[in-house]
């Protein structure tokens, strides 16, 4: 009889502590079962990490799984693991059947991330039990304090459990008690207890590794040779002694009346299973933890090398109940020497959980990488180049995020990831695509209705998050053949409102008014205007031309109900406006414009899965981007410069609002710089970080060379390449995760916007004054000319006068722009119509500033930027030099039902915002154009140019 077979005769089952696909598929496991009498298999996260992460054996299976449809990384892993476990269980099924269910088990462990969560462990164990669907499965649950009650619950439901990570006898006894209590409950419900099996996995070699180290440490400090040798005699003894005493406890337990009552009903004892039985100390026998632990009704799960060694030179003698008194004496001796086994075993549990979590991190990162390889260009690519200091900071923070499980905590909506304020209430966007899928049929029906009704135009009225997401969709996808054209209005500029009206055919226009709160001034006044115009055009049918997207119960919803709008779509109150593009705020206009939502959501989900809670930071593109942006900003590179392919050019406007409004507060910010054309490195200061967003078909060697020049100059660059336009959906999610992560790095709450509120209050005060007096409060320019009036607050005026500002506007401009220094940014904030001519002039102005001052430049159109970058200009660091540009609106435009006109509202918004900038002590100057706006803007550009030279 071989030593392995002889073990069986001693009443001990040998299980194999190993599994791998090829090993099972090629019949190696079956051979060990047949030839060596192996009667079970155990797996754990480290074993799967080696099998899946360390080989290409699973690549075909990953490819096949992804061909059926994309899925999360953990789903992908579980599918592989479950297949392996099922196959191994099938190999062992004859043993299970032949032993009447006494042996032939295969173990699969619940996620180590859940080791400290009873409820989550129970839920996952139930799911694994169901998904594996084999009676000879044992679900592995750790014997942590929260794990023990989970064991009891699972046993009470008739689920086989392998309780793992047991080191202390005290904990083993608690586990045994939980097993008995679980069986009693199962029996009380009429369950057949003979069908339930359990093992208690008692870890061995790790105890010696830990204890021996302490003994040696202590022995080195002991002078008395006798005492030293007493200590050294304990080397390599304690793990086995501890296991022998555990077995003694087992024997006592099954001799008790409580167990006997269960045994009478056919219950099977919970066998002790020796785990961690591969020898770690090379000076010990390689079969030490097999030879010494042989006894009836036990299991030893051995790694393949130990199995081979025991087959070759093991001794199958009954050892477990030998020298038990000596074992107890050894433990007493250890305690006397001042080494606490309790402390060691407690530490080993904590370390054991961490080791398995580390292995799971490695495993999931490997699966994520394989998934990305299989997806190829279906997933937008991202490559990051960073100079050494930033790269080192990123890799250190990546490890912190991994070790603290921060991405899992982010997805678990744990406000502690940020400031511990109300962040948990604002994370609904994590579930946007799932919600989108659940509503797909409704969106498709809406789209069909829009198409069938013959609408030629869809006009979306909204601000900030509610308008910029749809704008990216309109610009990126363009008009879909046979579908209405989607246009966005996010302005109170009279000329812009008029131009928008002129661009659509009102009689066949569907208006979508989008406002989460329903109380934002701009969408409400725009709605008042267009509803009135629709009434004039289509009479009583006006309401049927309007759709509202708003959070439940908002004032807009009430208006929509009162005025008989065509449809009301509800937003999700736990999603802030700037994170809302994948929610109805993006999906409803996308549907109306004929954008393929299935394709869009499928694409978005590619990134949702890539950035999931199960994808460790190093393999998680959203986390990586967020860490780079957050750490770069912390190190002074806080100007996020967005470069994009022409086809994706509008994305920056959306990213800008997300990043600026989320991070720009408490004196910190990532300042987005959108729309600045790429230049040579000499024009950039050391405060830049670049994100280059490309459509693959827009590849350009010149552009690549320019980007490479930036990298060579030491600027961090993130290159993102999209296979096609639908990839933009992925970018929305990548940037949302990245912004949330960057917010955590900066230590701010990325979901509030305190300074936007401040300017809203000031604006309200001004419009209230208008309502009361019929005009806005008078103001006195600090300088004036035929073309311009210049305004500023007393503090800025004093500083600028001291710097040479005099009677003419040009001197003010000169003094103001002379204040710009390295690391600053210049923001040109124009409350004028956003049209190609004005955009062109402002671009020229910013380029002139950049050429002369070599600083970052931002351009914003009021009031649109107030719902976007405006937060960072007011709440961020004092590095902004603001040039506000206003103009008289000729002709103005009345708002139906209100005494204030569009021009007045816009003027109040500009002045309200300036007031807050002043209060915050910002360097700000306002130039008011008194002539024709377009000509005045061009003249201002010339004056700026002159002031700079
Ligand atoms: O817990 C079981 C079986 O129940 C085992 O799979 C157990 O996890 C392994 O034996 C140990 O993790 C191996 O530990 P070690 O040899 O690396 O110290
Ligand atoms: O980003 C959001 C804007 O501030 C508009 O908010 P709203 O959707 O509540 O109108």
UniProtKB/TrEMBL annotation:
<dbReference type="GO" id="GO:0006096">
    <property type="term" value="P:glycolytic process"/>
</dbReference>
<dbReference type="Pfam" id="PF00923">
    <property type="entry name" value="TAL_FSA"/>
</dbReference>
<comment type="similarity">
    <text>Belongs to the GPI family.</text>
</comment>
<dbReference type="InterPro" id="IPR018225">
    <property type="entry name" value="Transaldolase_AS"/>
</dbReference>
<comment type="pathway">
    <text>Carbohydrate degradation; glycolysis; D-glyceraldehyde 3-phosphate and glycerone phosphate from D-glucose: step 2/4.</text>
</comment>
<dbReference type="Pfam" id="PF00342">
    <property type="entry name" value="PGI"/>
</dbReference>
<dbReference type="InterPro" id="IPR013785">
    <property type="entry name" value="Aldolase_TIM"/>
</dbReference>
<dbReference type="GO" id="GO:0005737">
    <property type="term" value="C:cytoplasm"/>
</dbReference>
<dbReference type="InterPro" id="IPR004732">
    <property type="entry name" value="Transaldolase_2"/>
</dbReference>
<dbReference type="InterPro" id="IPR001672">
    <property type="entry name" value="G6P_Isomerase"/>
</dbReference>
<keyword id="KW-0963">Cytoplasm</keyword>
<dbReference type="InterPro" id="IPR001585">
    <property type="entry name" value="TAL/FSA"/>
</dbReference>
<dbReference type="GO" id="GO:0006098">
    <property type="term" value="P:pentose-phosphate shunt"/>
</dbReference>
<keyword id="KW-0808">Transferase</keyword>
<keyword id="KW-0570">Pentose shunt</keyword>
<dbReference type="GO" id="GO:0097367">
    <property type="term" value="F:carbohydrate derivative binding"/>
</dbReference>
<dbReference type="InterPro" id="IPR035476">
    <property type="entry name" value="SIS_PGI_1"/>
</dbReference>
<dbReference type="GO" id="GO:0004347">
    <property type="term" value="F:glucose-6-phosphate isomerase activity"/>
</dbReference>
<comment type="function">
    <text>Transaldolase is important for the balance of metabolites in the pentose-phosphate pathway.</text>
</comment>
<feature type="active site" description="Schiff-base intermediate with substrate">
    <location>
        <position position="140"/>
    </location>
</feature>
<dbReference type="GO" id="GO:0004801">
    <property type="term" value="F:transaldolase activity"/>
</dbReference>
<protein>
    <recommendedName>
        <fullName>Transaldolase</fullName>
        <ecNumber>2.2.1.2</ecNumber>
    </recommendedName>
</protein>
<comment type="pathway">
    <text>Carbohydrate degradation; pentose phosphate pathway; D-glyceraldehyde 3-phosphate and beta-D-fructose 6-phosphate from D-ribose 5-phosphate and D-xylulose 5-phosphate (non-oxidative stage): step 2/3.</text>
</comment>
<keyword id="KW-0704">Schiff base</keyword>
<keyword id="KW-0413">Isomerase</keyword>
<keyword id="KW-0324">Glycolysis</keyword>
<keyword id="KW-0312">Gluconeogenesis</keyword>
<dbReference type="InterPro" id="IPR046348">
    <property type="entry name" value="SIS_dom_sf"/>
</dbReference>
<comment type="similarity">
    <text>Belongs to the transaldolase family. Type 2 subfamily.</text>
</comment>
<dbReference type="GO" id="GO:0006094">
    <property type="term" value="P:gluconeogenesis"/>
</dbReference>
């Amino acid at each position: 009889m071989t030593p392995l077979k002889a073990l069986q005769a001693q009443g001990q089952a040998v299980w194999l502590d190993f599994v791998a696909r090829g090993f099972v598929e090629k019949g190696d496991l079956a051979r060990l079962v047949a030839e060596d009498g192996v009667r079970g298999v155990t797996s754990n996260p480290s074993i799967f990490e080696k099998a899946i992460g360390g080989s290409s054996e699973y690549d075909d299976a990953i490819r096949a799984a992804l061909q059926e449809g994309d899925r999360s990384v953990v789903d992908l892993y579980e599918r592989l693991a479950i297949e392996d476990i099922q196959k191994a269980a099938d190999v062992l099924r004859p043993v299970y059947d032949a032993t009447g269910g006494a042996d032939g088990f295969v173990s699969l462990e619940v996620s180590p991330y859940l080791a400290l969560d009873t409820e989550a462990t129970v839920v996952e164990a139930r799911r694994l039990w169901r998904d594996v669907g084999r009676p000879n499965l044992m679900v592995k649950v750790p014997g942590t304090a929260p794990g023990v009650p989970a064991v009891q619950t699972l046993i009470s439901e008739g689920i086989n459990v392998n309780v793992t990570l047991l080191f202390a006898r005290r904990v083993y006894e608690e586990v045994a008690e939980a097993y008995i209590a679980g069986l009693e409950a199962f029996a009380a419900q009429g369950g057949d207890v003979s069908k339930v099996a359990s093992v208690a996995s008692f870890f061995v070699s790790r105890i010696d590794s830990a204890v021996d180290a302490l003994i040696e440490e202590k022995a080195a400090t002991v002078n008395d040779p006798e005492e030293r040798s007493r200590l050294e005699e304990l080397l390599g003894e304690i793990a086995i002694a501890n296991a022998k005493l555990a077995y003694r406890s087992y024997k006592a337990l099954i001799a008790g009346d409580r167990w006997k009552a269960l045994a009478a009903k056919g219950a099977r004892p919970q066998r002790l299973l020796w785990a961690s039985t591969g020898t770690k100390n090379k000076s010990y026998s390689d079969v030490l933890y097999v030879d010494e632990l042989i006894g009836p009704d036990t299991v030893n799960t051995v790694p393949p090398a130990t199995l081979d060694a025991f087959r070759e030179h093991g001794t199958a003698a009954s050892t477990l109940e030998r020298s038990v008194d000596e074992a107890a004496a050894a433990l007493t001796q250890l305690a006397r020497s001042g080494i606490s086994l309790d402390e060691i075993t407690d530490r080993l549990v904590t370390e054991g959980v961490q080791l398995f979590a580390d292995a799971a991190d490695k495993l999931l990162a490997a699966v994520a990488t394989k998934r990305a390889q299989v997806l190829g260009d279906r997933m937008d690519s991202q490559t990051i180049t960073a100079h050494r200091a930033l790269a080192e900071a990123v890799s250190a923070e990546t490890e912190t995020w991994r070790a603290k499980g921060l991405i899992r905590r982010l997805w678990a909506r744990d406000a502690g990831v940020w400031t511990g304020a109300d962040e948990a209430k604002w994370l609904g966007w994590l579930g946007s695509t799932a919600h989108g899928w659940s509503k797909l049929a409704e969106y498709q029906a809406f789209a069909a209705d829009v198409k069938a009704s013959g609408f030629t135009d869809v006009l979306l009225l909204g601000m900030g998050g509610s308008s910029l997401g749809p704008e990216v969709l309109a610009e990126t996808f363009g008009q879909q053949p046979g579908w209405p054209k989607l246009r966005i209005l996010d302005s109170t500029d009279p000329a812009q409102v008029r131009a928008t009206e002129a661009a659509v055919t009102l009689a066949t226009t569907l208006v979508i008014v989008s406002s989460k709160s329903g109380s934002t001034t701009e969408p409400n006044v725009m709605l008042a205007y267009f509803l009135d115009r629709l009434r004039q055009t289509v009479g009583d049918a006006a309401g049927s031309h309007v759709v509202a997207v708003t959070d439940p119960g908002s004032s807009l919803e009430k208006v929509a109900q009162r005025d008989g709008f065509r449809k009301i779509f509800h937003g999700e109150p736990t999603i802030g406006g700037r994170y809302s593009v994948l929610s109805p705020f993006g999906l409803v206009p996308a549907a109306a414009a004929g954008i393929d939502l299935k394709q869009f959501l499928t694409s978005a989900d590619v990134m949702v899965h890539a950035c999931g809670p199960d994808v460790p930071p190093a393999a998680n593109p959203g986390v990586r981007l967020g860490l780079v942006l957050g750490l770069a900003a912390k190190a002074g590179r806080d100007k996020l410069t967005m470069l994009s392919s022409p086809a994706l050019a509008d994305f920056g406007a959306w990213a800008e609002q997300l990043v600026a409004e989320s991070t720009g507060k408490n004196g910190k910010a990532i300042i987005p710089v959108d729309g600045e054309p790429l230049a040579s490195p000499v024009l950039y200061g050391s405060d830049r970080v670049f994100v280059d967003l490309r459509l693959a078909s827009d590849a350009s060697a010149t552009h690549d060379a320019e980007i490479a020049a930036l990298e060579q100059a030491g600027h961090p660059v993130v290159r993102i390449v999209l296979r096609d336009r639908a990839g933009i959906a992925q970018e929305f999610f990548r940037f949302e995760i990245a912004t949330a992560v960057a917010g955590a790095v900066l230590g701010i709450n990325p979901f509030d916007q305190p300074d936007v509120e401040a300017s809203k209050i000031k604006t309200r005060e001004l419009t209230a004054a208008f309502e009361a007096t019929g005009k806005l409060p008078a103001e006195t320019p600090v300088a004036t000319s035929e073309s311009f009036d210049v305004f500023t607050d007393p503090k800025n005026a004093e500083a600028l006068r001291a710097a040479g500002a005099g009677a003419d506007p040009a001197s003010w401009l000169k003094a103001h722009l002379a204040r710009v220094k390295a690391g600053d940014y210049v923001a040109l904030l124009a409350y004028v119509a956003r049209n190609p001519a004005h955009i062109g002039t402002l671009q020229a102005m910013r380029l002139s500033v950049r050429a002369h001052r070599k600083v970052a430049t931002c351009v914003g159109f009021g009031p649109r930027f107030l719902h976007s970058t405006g937060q960072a200009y007011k709440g961020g660091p004092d590095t902004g030099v603001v040039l506000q540009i206003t103009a008289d609106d000729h002709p103005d435009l009345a708002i139906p039902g209100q005494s204030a006109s569009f021009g007045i509202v816009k003027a109040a918004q500009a002045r309200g915002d300036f007031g807050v900038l002043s209060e915050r002590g910002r360097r700000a100057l306002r130039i008011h154009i008194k002539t024709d706006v377009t000509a005045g803007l061009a003249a201002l550009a010339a004056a700026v140019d002159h002031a700079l030279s």
